[in-house]
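Moderator note: this is an archived Q&A kept for reference. The question asked for a predicted structure of one protein chain; the sequence and the answer are reproduced below.
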Amino acid sequence: MDAALSTTAPRRHSTVLQAVVILRGLHPELTPNAQLSFLYICENDGLSVSELSELCGFSITTASRASRSLAEADAPGALAPYVGLVELRPDPFDARSRLIFLNGRGKRLRAELDSLIAEATQMAPLDLEPAAPVLARRWA
């Protein structure tokens, strides 16, 4: 290690990097695709897999795998690492599709990330308005 680097105090993480560190800490096998999927689900609770795929720029297969890895181990179709942040619910308009919602643990993590952002922008969490969904819901 370079001597100059070894005497330098560690730099404070940026808000984005802190969020990534928190997400990586959930499970060592959580992929970057699943992390990005979680962040989009936080902003658009109730997405379908195809809507998630469009937002993330993933194939539907990749979006499906990422969302299923964020579910509880006992959820139908769940995949390892079973992070337990989302619920996969049947789509009332398409029996072949599922909608992705944050569960209690996912909502608590979203609140933690919102607090990080609020702290970084020096705003109180209650002053933050929820982001408008990127995609309009079919039944809205």
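Archived answer notes: Helices lie at 3-6, 15-26, 32-43, 49-56, 60-69, 104-120.
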